[in-house]
Amino acid sequence: MINFLLVDDIEQNLTALEAILAQDGLNLLKARSGVEALELLLQHDIELALLDVQMPGMDGFELAQHIRQREKTRHIPIIFITATHKSLQLQFRGYQAGAVDYIYKPIEPGILKSKVNTFYQIFQQQKQLEHKNQELKRYAEENAQLLSQTQSYLAALEAEDRRKDEFLATLGHELRNPLAPIANGLQILAMSKDPQQLVETNKVMSQQLAHLKKLVDDLLDVSRVRQGKITLNRVPVDICDIARRASEACRVTTDSKQQALTVRVPEQSIWVLGDETRLYQVLTNLLSNASKYTPQGGTICTELSIEDGATVVTKVIDNGRGIAPEMQQKVFELFTQVDLTHHHSDSGLGIGLALVEKITRLHEGEISATSQGLGRGSTFTLRLPICEPVQSSADNKAKQSSQPEADNPQSENEKRILVVDDNREAAETLVELLTLLGHEGHCIFSGEEALAAATELNPDILFLDIGMPGMSGHEVCQQLRQKTHFRDTYIVAQTGFGQAEDKQKSEAHGFDKHLVKPLTLQQIQQVLAEHDSRRATRDKP
Fold first, then answer.
1. What's the rounded Cα separation, in Å, for the pair 499 and 83?
2. Cα separation, 383 vs 372, whole angstroms
3. CA dihedral sign of residues 326, 331, 336, 338
4. Which residues pair with 300 in a beta bridge?
5. pLDDT confidence of residue 166
6. Is the pLDDT at 345 greater than 70, yes or no?
7. What is the C-alpha to C-alpha distance for residues 220 and 396, in angstroms, rounded to an integer?
8. What is the rounded distance in angstroms from the CA atom of residue 461 to the CA atom of residue 296?
């Protein structure tokens, strides 16, 4: 809305002006004196003033001077309306007072309307320009904001790319490290006849293979967590017991570096609602990280305490390299390493702490890192909510302890075992291992051949790969189970897929057990023991 001010001491003149000028979008403000006009000027934004010259008290010229003297109103165009005969002296005085035009009485409606409409259109255009300018300004601000966001995203992507490049380079380094002793060990096994040397070589190769397996497992776990595919089996577990076992598991590493590992854990149990395997993974990762960044002869401490009666606080404290202030908020980001100088062979992949953070969050807990700076050690603090213990938790532990251990002696009876895998080397080496354990092993390299071989050999146990070209392991197992003769055969799935849904799918297709490659000797012995246990139960009168 555009405001025009009409000033005349005669009401009929104001009414006549209003009738001539009235139109949509124009608000006509009327004043019968100079004082009243000044009040309206203070209250409203006026775009044009039509002033009668001859008014009692403050005339039109004086009012115009007041308008020009004020910062807010000095820009307002002024048209004088007068009944005085035209004179150069009068016009000069009016223009001195700031007038842009004169209109003489009696007023010609067409002339007045034409002149006022000119200003009205100018002000409309100005309003439109102001509106467009505001829109342009808003668009410019939005574009600047988008540009800033885009630059931030680009910087983040570039940083992510750099971290991934560094990760891939480190991954290659970490994979080659264990491969070298394994390759050397194979040569030693082929050439040496010294029994003690063969035992030591086998030990080294087994350790390096375990390291490789952990690298792969960590990579897969990070991927699963990021995709939301990890499911936790959360039951009341004793975090003190888990902390003790994790510390003992890491003593081999700390002892090799002559590091003093202290464990300060309450004797009584502290229960949390958690997945025992994953919490053990969290604590071993924290301890391994502490050992990795602590020099030879350093100290590491694991301590547990209760905070506010509702939270158990686990701290892993070391006097190692420490963490720079700018890195303390980043150590839990994927592919981030505290030391990127590559001067240390144990810098790791930068995924262990990211995995710790994600698993902790799944347990509704918190993990944080603090350090006084480089060379001044680090403290990693894990906070988990305490829960009430339940009887079933102790029962489960008793039940687990009663299960056959992996190193229990297997049955003396020789078993006929069929291994089916399209990876020829994997199948043949597993058969060789089974033969060394005293069993009759056979291998087949496709699902189609497996059906005929199983019928011919009638195996006691069948190790069956899932992802084979042509007929998959699921199809083979399903077809065998449809035959009466194979309904009691112990069939084990061996695969690279280890998600909960993969295990459920194997069970639905008739498998007795689902194992993730590579199979360990411990797992194979467990299968043999479970087969013996099942057969003994079945043969009871």
1. 98
2. 21
3. positive
4. 261, 318
5. 65
6. no
7. 28
8. 48
Task: Enumerate residues 6+ apart whose C-beta is below 8 A from 233.
Answer: 275, 276, 277
Which residue, among 338, 207, 365, 349, has the nearest Cα to 278 in the 3D structure?
365
Query: With 70 as the cut, is the pLDDT of residue 184 above it?
Result: yes
CA dihedral of 489, 495, 500, 502, whole degrees rounded to 10: -80
Q: Is the four-CA dihedral 115, 118, 123, 124 of positive or negative sign?
A: positive
User: What tens digit of pLDDT does each residue of 95-128 get?
Assistant: 777 778 888 888 888 888 888 888 888 887 877 8
Token pair listed for 464: 């069956």
How far is it, in rounded angstroms, from Cα 17 to Cα 103? 12
Residue type (1 letter), 286: L
Give the pair of three-digit tokens for residue 395.
């029962």
Distance CA 247, CA 245 (A): 5
Using the CB atoms, write b or e for 4-25: b if 16+ within 10 Å.
bbbbbbeeebbebbeeebeeee
Residue 51's contacts (CB-CB under 8 Å, 6 or more residues apart) are: 7, 37, 60, 63, 64, 78, 79, 80, 81
**Amino acid code (one letter) for 410:** Q
Distance from C-alpha of 312 to C-alpha of 303, rounded to nearest angstrom: 10
Kind and range of the H or E element at 231?
none
